[in-house]
Design goal:
Layout lengths: L6 E7 L8 E5 L7 E2 L15 E2 L2 E8 L16 E2 L10 E6 L4 E9 L4 E10 L5 E12 L13 E6 L2 E4 L2 H7 L1 E7 L1 E6 L3 E6 L5 E11 L2 E10 L2 E3 L4 E12 L2 H11 L14 H18 L2 H15 L1 H16 L1 H11 L3 H15 L8 H19 L42 H16 L6 H18 L4 H24 L9
Antiparallel strand pairs: 1-2, 3-4, 5-10, 6-7, 7-8, 8-9, 9-19, 10-17, 10-18, 11-12, 11-14, 13-16, 14-15, 15-19, 16-17
Helix pairs in contact: 3-4, 3-8, 4-11, 5-11, 6-7, 8-11, 9-10, 9-11
Length: 502
């Protein structure tokens, strides 16, 4: 069949354990469909789900509907000129149809994840032959996916410079989606892995995503069909395409985009909604990682850079909060005096703020500034393979997964079963504590109900963010501590550094 259908990523493991299985990316027809690694618990380090089953790449030729040519198919037995394919050793397969046509496929692979497939048809017959080169990626079974909106898993491609993403469920409904373009690529993406066809970027092609059911199993196919080529009598024709099959390493993907001229291949690296912010954050993280050799420390250094970048804005915000806290006794007095007249109270409060040049809305700016950075960093930590199984210190052995510790059951030493929603790691608790300390420095609302809500917020956020990647929790905790120190210094200068009474 001359298929690329037995591919193992030898340097990648299913989990952080050295004895865990290697990642099997491509498998031949007939492989049982099963999960290579379960998704595991939401609150514990786990290997990402990756299905094992028929999953392969095939290149070939098709003819017009009226043609009677014998063409190589999935059962064709090709002759090889060797037994090994390596970066310095290409492999050529050949097959003859008995009608004067000789087909060859020359496979080359580099030291990373890119294959170059050069196909040649030699025509020794008396008449010219018209053929259409194609390539396809076929996958049997619907893979388990993470199900997160910031990550796409499934058929993906770039057509006319625009990224096209289709979920497996969408493709099941549509059955077939077709696009025509010059330049681009198309394939199937998992969380950390990618198998994609890269046709000649100078030639037009028609790309297609399709789904059908065979023998009770979902079958997905991504393919392209290039324009007709004529093989003259006594002559030959050669076409060359590429296929990427491996890990979505950002630097590697960017390098292929530059060296091979692949249109928007950088979009294969999983950055989606906040690409404009996530990609720069990623490069800053990698820069610090190259300096210190630890992504956790790189996150701490990145946080310092973010704080410096937004220092002027944060300073204004904290000065406004200090002013609001200094005015709190006067606000209490006005509420007691005009509490029954809400319009008069609002008018007096506005006059007070205007007279003292205080802006109650400025206190929200630090949170508003952090939100896009927070989600961009979340996207980086959750989707990039560089963060996969990256350790910090102590029990944090994978920054892309939740904190595995539990204050209710220290590292599993106590034989105690607990509901998953009660799982609280050490870092989420530290984050909640830092948030509580920060809120204690803020002006407190006078409404008793609002006071209770403010008291509950750190607890709610602690439980809500506990399942998030530990790298993100470390970022948020460290950011809170830096903000706390900055806020305390500014408020001390204004004479209002004491914690608020509740």
């Amino acid at each position: 069949g001359a298929r690329l259908d037995d591919l193992t990523l030898a340097t990648y493991r299913q989990s952080g354990r050295s004895d865990s299985g290697q990642i099997v990316l491509l498998s031949p027809q007939g492989t049982p469909i099963e999960l290579q690694a379960g998704a595991g618990s939401l609150f514990a380090p786990r290997s990402e789900p990756l299905s094992v089953g028929p999953y392969y790449v095939e290149f070939g030729w098709s003819a017009g509907p009226e043609a009677t040519l014998a063409l190589p198919g999935p059962d064709a037995v090709w002759q090889a000129d060797g037994t090994t394919l390596a970066p310095d050793r290409p492999l050529t397969l050949s097959w003859e149809n008995g009608q004067g046509l000789r087909f060859t496929q020359r496979f080359e692979v580099d030291s990373d994840f890119m294959f170059r497939v050069t196909r040649t048809v030699e025509n020794s017959a008396a008449a010219p032959v018209t053929l259409f080169p194609y390539g396809l990626v076929a996958r049997a079974g619907t893979p388990a996916t993470s199900g997160f909106y910031i990550l796409h898993e499934g058929p993906v491609g770039v057509f006319d410079g625009t990224l096209e993403e289709h979920d497996y469920s969408d493709l099941q409904e549509a059955g077939r989606i077709e696009k025509t373009t010059t330049g681009g690529w198309l394939g199937i993406a998992d969380k950390y892995w990618l198998v994609t066809l890269v046709p000649d970027q100078r030639q037009p092609f028609t790309g297609r995503f399709s789904h059908h059911v065979a023998e009770g199993q979902d079958r997905y196919q991504v393919d392209y069909l290039r324009g007709a080529v004529t093989v003259p009598a006594g002559g030959s024709v050669t076409v060359a395409d590429h296929v990427f099959a491996g890990a979505k390493v950002v630097r590697t993907i960017d390098a292929y985009e530059d060296s091979l001229g692949i249109v928007r291949f950088d979009l294969a690296a999983s950055f989606r909604w906040l690409y404009f912010l996530a990609k720069p954050l990623f490069h800053v993280l990698v820069f610090f990682y190259d300096l210190v050799g630890n992504f956790g420390v790189a996150i701490l250094l990145l946080t310092v850079c973010v704080k410096i970048l937004f220092f002027p804005l944060a300073n204004k915000s904290y000065r406004a909060m200090a002013a609001m806290k200094r005015l709190q006794p006067e606000v209490v007095r006005l509420r007691e005096q005009f509490g029954s007249d809400r319009q008069r109270l609002q008018r007096e409060l506005m006059e007070l703020y205007k007279r003292e040049k205080a802006n109650p809305m400025m206190g929200c700016l630090p949170i508003l500034v952090q939100i896009p950075v927070f989600f961009a960093l979340y996207e980086v930590l959750f989707t990039t393979i560089e963060m996969r199984q990256a350790p910090f210190f102590g029990w944090i052995t994978d920054l892309s997964t939740p904190d595995p510790s539990n204050i209710l059951n220290p590292f599993g030493l106590v034989p105690f079963e607990y509901p998953e929603f009660l799982h609280l790691g050490v870092w989420p608790v530290l984050m909640g504590l830092s948030m509580w300390l920060q809120m204690r420095l803020n002006p407190q609302p006078q409404d008793p109900i609002q006071q209770k809500i403010f008291l509950l917020m750190p607890i709610v956020f602690t439980f809500m963010l506990a399942p998030f990647p530990s790298g993100l929790i470390i970022y948020w905790t460290w950011n809170n501590l830096l903000s706390l120190a900055q806020q305390w210094v500014i408020m001390k200068r204004h004479g209002v550094a004491k914690p608020a009474k509740t």
